[in-house]
Fold this protein.
Amino acid sequence: MNLPKYVLARIGFYVFVVIVATAFALPLLWLLLAPFGRQATLAVRIPSEPTLANFVSVFRNAFAMRALFVNSIIQAVGAMLLITAVATLTAYSLSRIRLPGRDMFVYMLILFSSVVTGSAAMVPIFLLIFELGLIDSHTGVILVFTGGLLPVAIFIMRDFMQSLPKSYEESALVNGASTLQMLRHVVLPLTRPGMMVIGIWAFVNVWGSFLIPFILLRSPDRMPAATATYSFYTEAGTPVITLVSAYALLYILPVLALYLFVNWRYGFQFFGGIKS
Amino acid sequence: MARVLFENVTKEFGSVKAVNDVSLEIQDGELLCLLGPSGCGKTTTLRLIAGLETATSGRIHIGDTDVTRFSPKDRDVGMVFQDYALYPHMNLADNIAYPLKVRKVREAARMERAKEVADHLRIGHLMERLPGQISGGQQQRTSVARAVVHEPRVFLFDEPLSNLDAKLRLESRGFIKHLQQEMGVTAVYVTHDQAEAMALADRIAVMQDGVIVQIGSPLEIYRNPQTSFVANFLGSPPMNLFDAEVRNGSFVGSSFELDAKGVKEHSALNDGDSVTLGIRPEHVRVSPKPMKNSIASELYAFEALGPESILSFRIDEQLLVARAFGDDPPEIEMGQTAYLSFEPRHLHLFNEHGSRVNAD
């Protein structure tokens, strides 16, 4: 390849990369800057006179605050715990016990996972939750999310479990541990990294979902943050951009905090296999 | 300390009989090696003792207790796994003390005991490390320490040396043998390495297709293999085996003829019988000059190993391997014809089913 052609190719490549990166970076930059501006604007610019007034009005909105710091937390943490617990136990049995049609079952899970939470299933899910008397309850929302996210969670966890050598468990048993002790002392610590991944993934998924709580919940005091964003719209249906952006910035903080906490406390590292 | 007894034990996986009607008694304080190629059922036999597999039929006793249906934790055995299975999230002290922890030994007491065992195995200075931070040899010692810390009645070793390099393997071999004799505990050791079995075992049980084909002291098995399989499996280089036919007091092979005079077992054979002749490499005499009753062959390869030399000769499609001791090997050059002979008493005979032919 001759030199001018090479240089041109590199330049072309960098231009492309910059365009793509900008497309992703601009909305984030806007999210960081817009809440501090006095005027509503969709342009990305450093506010000339930064202000916290937007946050003050957001904090004064009791409905939105309750949605963010109570309802969203209940629903996301609830679904996270339930999904992680059930996925871990299911994946463990699926990876350790031989059943006829086991692999088929796992692939069916993946297939169903894309159907259950899809919009196509919205009406049956609504009817089901209605018949169960769980409309307008946190439990209903948590159960629907759990049902929807569990298949993928099980699939990921099963892969993780299968990479753990069985000899860890066998040695625990031979060393005199009961099955429960083996699970508590050996299996659980070794699967913790996988559980962390599933937990965070589930939390983020529930945290960011709008449609399911919007359909299943009626009373304002149970709405999560995703639906509460609507309280910063005018009656005419246009968003008050300053307030929406301030609320959105608060909205991402718990996810960020959760990630940092888990990374600090446990780290996302994997323990090695035989020789690490 | 206890004997281990197998009574007609069979273990089936689906339609495969991994262990087929095995009866076996392992004496108190004995080190028994289960030796065989992969898939012969030796590891399954070990796991049956540990309780990691449950026998399809038959009974297993440890000491005077019938443990056939016992779960592993109630069998009081210590096991060293091939991959060591050290818990990666626990430091060495916690790893070694684990069997005591689940037996509800108090923290201080179990740490003291773990330290004592670790010091004895020369890993006492590593107690704070994680298994990932120590060498393969140290991991192996740690896993032995964990297996002995609660003084089990039986030690089980599942190919514990196969992940070590050659030098470390020799060292660990001596160390395991010493430890087992020092503690005087019954041990079962699974390996596919015949040299390891010869070096370690009080008795060797050679397994093939889920059956014990021969059991006895290492030298007994080496000197009197009961089948051609055992003959070929023990010894390195293995025993030379050649097919021949009995004809008029001679063994006639495809390109050789040996006088059967002096071979006692010959009396049990009839003219026309097919036999397999077996001769250990160290019993092959190599001479550059023509000899009576010998096989003439050209030198195919020569390996000088120091204390011994390995000479291979081509006989039809097979190699006949001779082993000469001392550092002046027979003076034969590549391609030169040599004359190979054996004393009749060193010849092993096997019939067409591979079983040893004994003199009448």
Q: What stands out?
A: Chain B touches chain A at residues 50-52, 71-73, 75-79, 81-85, 87-89, 98-99, 101-103, 131-132, 136, 139, 146, 150, 156, 163 (CB under 8 Å).
